Backbone:
């Protein structure tokens, strides 16, 4: 929970965190090295100077550090682990469900463990997903469409096998599908960041929620366009958040555009830890307002910030929010809840 | 930051440390001017402005260009287009007989550099990984040219609205009604590249096929144009920042 200098209190769900191992010993090849270096450039380009870590600290974070960065310093009430396997790049994988789960099991009140699947794994993968769902009580999965697998450089959510997996998710009670686009896809001549496949899948599976990570960046316009048409499409702010420091005007435009197109109920906060840490992101966001000349966007009120910082994700994952931290009139099933005074 | 010039040919150093540039068949400035016509299709900016040109070397009739990108994992199809376009731009220069364009520090450098040098096309450079028939990434290029065109309409329209024009008017104006300036020039260029009319009499706002935007569609189309512009400009800013930290460039 975060209490602002003005005395406003915010329930914080960090919807996208990792516990990764990118140490040189785990790097399987030049791609593994290139991948973590790419993350590190994002980290040092978009972090405030005093928050930049040496590369060695960025390779992997011990459990104590993760807990400190997220919960002790970072104001986070609940963090959602999003795995990114990358088993073609890292000997033991970059960030598997099991790696995350081991930590989460020691701190069950702190973390939600998401799983993952890959449609290219066919029937065997479906069985594996069942086991994963049972082992970790999955309510969500994180999918990386640019994941390499042998000769394949990626896949689409509209592939027939992907639909088989989405059906399996429905069957297993996995409701939240986090989609992360990357630079490669099959076929490689197409735009890998295109989110049209999310549009197709969201139409075909209205009972699943599709959280497009990085709010579709670098295709913000395509994301906004599909999200206005599909009520079950959400925008995750991972990677967009740190612009609040380095390029606040751009950040204001992203948030303003999102509020205009999809509204305040379908945007979720995330640090993308360990690329960034939540402490400064939460503080800056609560303090944030549009530059004076950007007058055309929906207001960024304390209530809107409450929803983005935690309440929207809490709804997706049935996280219990203390009553005094909710937004009045925002409960799904509570009619006439007591209004909460807003300072 | 200006691209560094890689060991330019036979440099003559005379006593008194005055440097005399040898007479080259094609001056480096001409190569840079040629490269300035090459755009990043996603960011809609010249690769020279984006600092993607790491070096240029002219030796006699040979031109060697080094390109660099913001990340190791930049999308390989866009990377390929920039390398191929840079190659073609240099090859068109008078007096140039040999061209080498080398993309450095990229996961697919080898495939792209060899593919462009041998004129293999994108599918030939990445066998088995592409759709059949799309030999020169024409579809990808068109998609992003259309985005660039849509984004370019927005500042021109916004200027008219700032001058007090009602939004419904915009459906009935032509390019000649807009204020002259770099933004209008840019819009005309993008439109011409799409093969659409770009003269003064051409409609101010058109869809990707050239049909004028009708009055009822105006507000939504203008909003979408703005979101597109913000997305492209924001992306370009991110890429500049990443390139800066990657190569230690100042500002």
Residues:
């Amino acid at each position: 929970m975060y209490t602002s200098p003005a005395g406003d209190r915010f329930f914080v769900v960090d919807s996208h965190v990792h516990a990764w191992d990118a140490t040189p010993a785990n790097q399987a090849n030049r791609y593994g090295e290139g991948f973590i270096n790419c993350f590190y450039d994002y980290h040092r380009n978009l972090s405030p100077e005093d928050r930049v870590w040496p590369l060695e600290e960025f390779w992997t974070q011990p459990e104590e550090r993760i807990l400190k960065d997220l919960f002790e310093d970072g104001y986070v009430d609940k963090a959602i682990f999003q795995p990114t396997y990358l088993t073609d790049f890292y000997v033991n994988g970059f960030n598997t469900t099991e790696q995350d789960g081991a930590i989460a099991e020691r701190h069950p009140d702190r973390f939600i463990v998401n799983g993952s699947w890959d449609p290219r794994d066919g029937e065997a993968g479906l069985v594996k997903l069942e086991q994963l769902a049972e082992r970790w009580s999955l309510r969500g999965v994180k999918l990386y469409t640019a994941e390499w697998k042998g000769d394949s450089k990626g896949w689409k959510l509209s592939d027939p096998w992907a639909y088989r997996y989405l059906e399996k998710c429905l069957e297993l009670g996995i409701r939240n599908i986090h989609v992360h686009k990357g630079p490669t896809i099959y076929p490689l001549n197409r735009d890998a960041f295109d989110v049209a496949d999310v549009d197709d899948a969201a139409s075909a599976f209205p009972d699943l929620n599709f959280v497009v990570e990085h709010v579709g960046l670098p295709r913000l316009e395509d994301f906004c366009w599909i999200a206005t048409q599909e009520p079950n499409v959400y925008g995750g702010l991972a990677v967009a958040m740190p612009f609040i420091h380095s390029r606040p005007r751009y950040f204001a435009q992203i948030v303003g555009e999102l509020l205009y197109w999809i509204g305040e109920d379908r945007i979720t906060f995330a640090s993308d830890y360990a690329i960034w840490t939540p402490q400064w992101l939460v503080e800056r966001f609560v303090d944030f307002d549009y530059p004076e000349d950007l007058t055309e966007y929906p207001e960024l009120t304390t209530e809107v910030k409450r929803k983005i910082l935690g309440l929207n994700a809490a709804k997706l994952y049935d996280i219990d929010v203390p009553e005094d931290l909710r937004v009045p009139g925002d409960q799904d099933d509570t009619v006439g809840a007591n209004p909460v005074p807003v300072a | 930051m200006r691209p560094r010039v890689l060991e330019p040919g036979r440099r003559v150093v005379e006593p008194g440390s005055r440097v005399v540039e040898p007479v080259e068949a094609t001056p480096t400035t001409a190569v840079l001017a040629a490269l300035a016509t090459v755009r990043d299709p996603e960011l809609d900016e010249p690769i020279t402005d984006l600092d993607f040109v790491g070096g240029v070397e002219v030796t006699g009739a040979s031109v060697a260009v080094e390109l660099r990108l913001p990340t190791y994992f930049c999308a390989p199809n866009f990377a390929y287009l920039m390398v191929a376009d840079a190659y073609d731009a240099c090859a068109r220069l008078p007096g140039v007989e040999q061209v080498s364009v080398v993309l450095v520090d990229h996961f697919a450098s080898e495939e792209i550099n060899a593919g462009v040098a041998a004129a293999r096309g994108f599918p030939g450079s990445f066998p088995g990984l592409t759709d059949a028939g799309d030999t020169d990434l024409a579809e990808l290029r068109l998609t992003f040219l259309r985005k660039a065109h849509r984004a370019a309409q927005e500042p021109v329209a916004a200027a008219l609205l700032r001058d007090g024009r009602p939004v419904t008017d915009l459906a009935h104006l032509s390019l000649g009604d807009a204020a002259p300036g770099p933004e209008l020039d840019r819009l005309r260029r993008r439109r011409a590249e799409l093969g659409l009319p770009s003269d003064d009499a051409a409609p101010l706002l058109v869809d990707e096929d050239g049909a004028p935007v009708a009055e009822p569609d105006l507000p939504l189309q203008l909003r979408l144009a703005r979101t597109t512009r913000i997305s492209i400009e924001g992306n370009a800013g991110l890429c500049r920042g990443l390139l800066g930290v990657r190569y230690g460039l100042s500002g």
Remarks:
- Chain B has two domains: 4-134, 139-247.
- The first helix of chain B runs from residue 28 to 35.
- Chain B touches chain A at residues 42, 70-77, 107, 122-123, 126, 128-131, 134, 137, 139-140, 143-144, 147, 223-224, 226-228, 230-231, 233-235, 237-238, 241-242, 244-246 (CB under 8 Å).
- The two ends of chain B are 8 Å apart (CA to CA).
